[in-house]
Amino acid sequence: MTLSRPRRARPVLIGIALAYLALILLLPLILVFVQALAKGFDAYVAAIADADARSAIWLTLLVAAISVPVNVAFGLAAAWSLTKFDFRGKAFVISLIDLPFSVSPVVAGLVYVLIFGAQGWFGGWLVSHDVRIVFAVPGIVLATIFVTFPFVARELIPLMAEQGRGEEEAALSLGAGGWQMFWRVTLPNIRWGLLYGVLLCNARAMGEFGAVSVVSGHIRGETNTMPLQVEVLYNEYSFAAAFAVASLLALLALVTLVVKSVLEWRYDIGGKGHL
Q: CB neighbours (10 Å) of residue 187?
């Protein structure tokens, strides 16, 4: 009797979960594409081909192309040092890595304005040397790096900790150098986790709004990324154009979801553990 109740409740719970996902995720996603194509495919293409839209797309790709490799290098170094070595303050370093998860992106953007803005700590020196960070591409890159740097590290730290140090120590005892050990032992063991972290980092970099909004200055054609361009177009009541640009972000999210599913499947099939 007690076992039959969970079996009866299972389809109800599954139905509730699917209905909730359809309402919160699937329906808005469908509406984005419906609104993007509301004025026809030609209007959709024209909105994407607009000079400001093309600038926003290019800037978004550029920022991601800079911030993701930087965070990959940091994530590898952080995970390696935290899992392969013992030192005082390790827990504190892990807490610092988690800081962007607990700090509002808007606050992070304000911090960069206070540091590099015209009235900030280094503002006078930057102005005198004609160096622009805030309200320019470098500020957007810095803000994006801050909000995305935990993703790679947080994927690799538990994975490398679970694997331990045995294989690396064996490789060293057999005469392998540091780079040989990394390329032939460590990297093959973490490749799927690394790719998963890169995927999440890239998705967040392209979709970041809060921190980038503060440091960008909203200069059309110069410092507007795709999320900021969507906001500008929507506030100007150019709804079809706004949803057209938003649909590109939605497509990127769908591609991310597909690649994520493939990586999880490959990772599980290979018997490497969980992500």
A: 12
Model pLDDT for residues 175-221, shown as the tens digit of each residue: 676 677 777 777 788 888 888 889 889 989 998 998 999 999 888 88
In which residue are the tokens 């192309």 written? Answer: 65
Looking at residue 217, its amino acid is G
CB half-sphere exposure, 200, CA atoms < 13 A: 20
Angle, alpha carbons 185-189-191 (nearest 5°)? 115
Q: Give the three-class secondary structure for 195.
A: helix
CB atoms within 10 A of CB 25: 11
Q: Which residues of 225-248 are buried (b: 16+ CB within 10 A; e: fewer)?
A: bbbbbbbbbeeeeeebbbbbbbbb
**Is this prediction's pTM over 0.85?**
no
Contacts 24+ apart (CB under 8 A), 59-62: 59/137, 59/140, 59/223, 59/224, 59/225, 60/206, 60/225, 60/226, 61/206, 62/137
Distances (CA, A) of 252 to 4, 80, 202, 222, 247: 43, 30, 10, 22, 9
